[in-house]
């Protein structure tokens, strides 16, 4: 059980959300933000970074939306659907686009292969949470 | 002319957006994030912080979505509508809700009055940019 | 092996740092930032939030320095001691002060007990990394 | 008078700091973070981004330490010297290193010339605040 899950367990959130789904998404968002940050650093170090420009830009976007969403959905006591839902939708889009681009480089760069995997997991978790919030 | 406007002027963004609208929104987002952060600090110091709990929570949400959106729309070269639009929509919702709550306390707390004003300006700027991106 | 560790494994960082120490610290920083964000939310919901004001403020500081440090030390390819070291020192101080305050409330609030534990772990990890960077 | 200055004016900070110095630094930090974010985007679009790799990495570091410091020093009610001082010192170092690197490209890239100027202003403001906090 992660610390996120333990923390959420100690108080009753305002909305009727399964805490496992919520904690899994928060952890996936933080993992994804961090993987994207490291992937930018790795991409900048390849022999020809020109090929990685799109990947870098998408990783930067993805890191920022995921960091913000993890903070927002971590504050469950004041759940605001109009803030939470588009925040998660931005993450779904960023993880999808970034994951697709990372996958294009996966055969060449192991860091992109892992980053793509983390983006897919996060995209999936955000979609599950969006469904659960319906 | 702010530094944001000067910076954007030095290179051609990928999308056909009026640079004034874009720079105004970025600056409004950063002003709003900062005002919300300071407002949380001020709210915590009032004689009865229990009354300010909702305001604090909304300011925290608002600061995080605005910081993320300023970063995302500041990276204009890789414009991704599916990331940009929900990010701005989350800001519109956060600024609206937070501005409404701050306004309720405006007659008692000058910091809430100013924060409400900054939220309104940011909400307006985000709506204008969303319209311009159509 | 966490994704952070896997990512770092795929490219050689500029400095001679043990990758386990580095990955452990990055993961501890992200865990701590998230725990502090959730603890703020939980603290605001207790019957008398006035007693939690100091705890909330320290958690807010701690979350922000930890998020920034995780990003900075995650970008290992351009290691800058003058940026990295004070960033980690700010985390050590924030985790220590926040951990102490959370501990004061641990007997009353389980969320503070867990948050204190996460702060201690993060403080320890940052100290280890600072030692390793010497 | 900026909104930051207006906000700070509404409540008495815990430390005896000149509010103009404080507000100037907060605004300089946010300007610098934003300029660095846009500069990364612009650097990635130059014909040969390989030459800009160091500049991009330093801008990324600089944006993150400045965003965190603006948040921390904006919460003046719980001033903690052991958190505030290293946070500002990390900004001084990041602004100095990033400003130097941007200046190297200033004759070629107008965005780097402006970013260097913003970094210098922020470095100066952080040094002034550190002096004022002594």
Indicate how many domains the architecture of chain A comprises: 1
Percentage of β-strand residues of chain A? under 5%
Instruction: Count the E strands of chain A.
Output: 0
Largest sheet of chain A: none
| First-residue to last-residue Cα separation of chain A | 26 Å
Q: Which CATH C-level class of chain A is it?
A: Mainly Alpha
Shape of chain A: elongated
Oligomer: homotetramer
Helix content of chain A: over 70%
Radius of gyration of chain A: 15 Å
The CATH architecture of chain A can be given as Up-down Bundle
Biggest interface and residues each: A-C, 38 and 38 residues
Helices, strands, pairings?
The structure is a homotetramer of 134-residue chains.
Chain A: H1 3-9, H2 19-44, H3 53-74, H4 81-104, H5 110-133
Name a few traits of the molecule.
134 residues; Substrate Binding Domain Of Dnak, Chain:A, Domain 2; mainly alpha; elongated; homotetramer; 77% helix
In a few lines, what is going on in this structure?
Chain A is mainly α.
Give a verbal description of the structure.
4 copies of one chain form a homotetramer. Chain A has helices at residues 3-9, 19-44, 53-74, 81-104, 110-133. Chain A is elongated, with a radius of gyration of 15 Å. Chain A has 134 residues and is mainly α. In chain A, α2 (19-44) packs antiparallel against α5 and α4 packs antiparallel against α5 (110-133). Chains A and B meet through α3 and α4 of A and α3 and α4 of B.
